[in-house]
Amino acid sequence: MSRFLSNRGETQPQKVRFDDDTIPDDGEVGGTLKLRISDSNVTEDQEPFMGVKVRRKASILRDYVGDYLDVPSRPYLMKILEKQGDKKVLFADKVLKFTGSGKMKQRILLITDFAVYIVDPDCGALKRRIALAAVEKLCLSELSDNFFAIIIPTEYDLLMASTRKTEVVTTLVEATKSQSDYELDVLFSNRFEYNASSVLIKEVQFEEVEGGVKTRILRK
């Protein structure tokens, strides 16, 4: 089966409420907010990636802050970046990361002009560093949710959730474009697969239901 089953648009992401800190292999994650109806075939989430008018794109980027954690005020984060030779922080915020076993863990997501960092906020330890050059594509649903997957062919992939998903994706696309001669693919689908580990493939399914979005993460 192809890892990506369609390529269409999504609506503005809304906050998803999680009822537990784990998701079984055939688990469901329920969204609680109503969907935003778009009056256009190209939604605001898609605009940075669909070649729409620069004026409309700029109106979205105007609200982006980037560093929501004030990284310079956190010595343990600065130490991690300095050790790797990174200085320019493009994005910093707390996110939910899904493990291969289905658990959700809070992590700090840092994006610089060269790499993606995943840091444990409790102990301040660097859990993973991914060079931007290793990222092949990003996967998002067509609906109103906070999920996104970072696909890394040479390693295992990342599935995360953030209320600032659009800013994360935009930052990754722009950072990759500025450092290389290719543009990161952004694929929209209500079903996509990702490598949860080196030996485990999972499929994420999204379904519009009354009052929000139902999300299922299934073992393949």
UniProtKB/TrEMBL annotation:
Residues 1-14 have a biased composition (Polar residues). Residues 1-22 are annotated as: Disordered. GO terms for molecular function: cytoskeletal motor activity. It comes from the Eukaryota. Residues 53-220 form the TH1 domain. One of its GO terms (cellular component) is myosin complex. InterPro entries: Myosin_TH1. This is Myosin IB heavy chain. It comes from Nicotiana tabacum. The gene is LOC107823343.
